[in-house]
Amino acid sequence: MSYNVLVSDPLAEEGIEILKNFCNVDEKTGLSEDELVGIIGNYDALVVRSGTEVTARVIEAATKMKYIGRAGAGVDNIDTDAATRKGIIVANAPEGNTLAATEHTMAMMLSLARRIPSANASLKKGEWKRSKFMGVEMNEKTLGIVGFGRIGREVAQRAQSFNMRVVAYDPFITPERGAQFGVEMMSVEELFRVADVITVHTPLIKETKHLINAASIATMKDGVRIINCARGGIIDEKALADAIVSGKVAGAALDVFEEEPPTGSPLLGLDTVVVTPHLGASTVEAQKNVAISIAHQCIDVLKGGAAKYVVNAPMIPTELQETIEPYARLAERMGRLVSQVVGGAITKVEVTYAGDLVEMRQNLKFVTRMAIKGILDPVLQRPVNIVNAEFVARERGIAVAETMTEESHGFKNLISITIKTKDGEETISGSVFGKSRVRIVGIGAFTMDLIPEGSVVISRHIDRPGVIGPAATILGKHAINIAGMQVGRVSAGEEALMVLNVDSDVPENVMDELRAVPGIISATFATL
């Protein structure tokens, strides 16, 4: 059988040749959405980079499509939900540019330390001002790595060869796992205090948006140097510019910006800022690697196999969908909630199935992986789904276990997820009522009947008068509507748990007000 593959963005020739040895390849770049819709029905596979927008409309017209490959790490330009609904495998090449991004980070660090760009520009103007460009050595300096994934680990290895002390922050890496790489894991607050050089390698999510800001910069060492080759928006660029002008920050090296191109950015006018136009993955080798990876995955899928780096979750088999889907949806939401409530690096996840679920033991792997997806999704850059969930967990040093028991504590069926960290553990339980009504029925020892959707504020407090009222008043003062409230307790006068369903996000300053209410032990905002 002959297959047709469309390559709609420039792809390294090595990848093209691999595809041509197996199937018919058409290279048509610069297509509009209408043009793509008009021809996509002729193809079994589509290979893109960042230039092609693979919209739901394009996917709907792809009547023969089995595979969409993104020659790179991100898949923001592909409607993966639409592809999943259509049964199309979407894959990327996340490891192809790891070394390129790593080496660019090191180049930026050294350029910043030795002021190479400014010295180069000065000399080319005919100047000879050696004293103006006094640099610093990296020897025995402390490098703080925010985000200890593949790139972070590669950066650490190279920094250690420079005799640097390396510390890192990553919510999913335990101290023991970090020690295997010769790296001391610590909180991001402590990292900011001790590092001479800070480099970020995290995704841009709500938790990392403006992670480096005026307040966090104030806690850093005088003369700190800051590097960002990850994502624009992790650094508050105005705050960084102000800190450089004041002398608090000695300099910065940036490959990414909140707006690209960064027209009018105050950072562009500062001599102690090194900038490049998003070149982290721009090496001949990286482009070759991602092209080869995505081509081989394409062929594997067309042959009836699986892609190595699938980024969308395969559909539940039709005959099991009605039965399994509610449990999978519940497990994912439970995972999202408990990962936001628990503190410390996760070492183990245990999923327990009880009651009637024991009879479905052969078909619960999907549910377990969706639970892991929910746990990891909020903080990881790489897509997590039922194909790679357990692999990603193992890569992060997280053990995963399944347990079956007929004892369901009064429920017909019960799913419990226990997360263990170096600081302790937390358990969340849920059940499906009828065919599809999902509920979270317990957090720790506290019972409840919580619909797992929307946004919630979860607080632990002393069960006494004068606690719940002030908390509600604070939310009302900030125009945050409470849509529902539940309170659970074990014994009167002791610790209780309150869950408030809210209609909007609760800013951190408002959460701080809640935590300051007498009697409140802890308070967390979470989205499901």
What is the helix tally? Answer: 17
C-alpha geometry: globular
Number of strands: 22
Judged by helices, strands and strand pairing, the structural class is alpha/beta
Quick structural summary:
This protein is α/β, with parallel strands linked by helices and 528 residues long.
Give structural notes.
With 528 residues, the protein is an alpha/beta fold. Strands 8-7-6-9-10-11-12 form a seven-stranded parallel sheet, with helices on both faces. β15 and β16 form a beta hairpin. It is globular. The mean pLDDT is 91.
Keywords, separated by commas or semicolons:
22 strands, 7-stranded parallel β-sheet, alpha/beta, 17 helices, globular, 528 residues, 6-stranded mixed β-sheet
Topology:
Layout: E1 4-7, H1 13-20, E2 24-27, H2 33-39, E3 45-48, H3 56-61, E4 67-70, H4 80-86, E5 89-92, H5 98-114, H6 116-124, E6 142-146, H7 150-161, E7 165-169, H8 175-179, E8 184-185, H9 188-194, E9 197-200, H10 214-218, E10 224-228, H11 237-246, E11 249-254, E12 273-275, H12 284-302, H13 318-341, E13 346-355, H14 365-376, H15 389-395, E14 399-405, E15 413-421, E16 424-433, E17 437-443, E18 446-450, E19 455-462, H16 468-477, E20 482-489, E21 495-502, H17 508-515, E22 520-527
Parallel strand pairs: 1-2, 1-3, 3-4, 4-5, 6-7, 6-9, 7-8, 9-10, 10-11, 11-12, 13-14
Antiparallel strand pairs: 13-15, 15-16, 16-17, 17-18, 19-21, 19-22, 20-21
Helix pairs in contact: 1-12, 5-7, 13-14
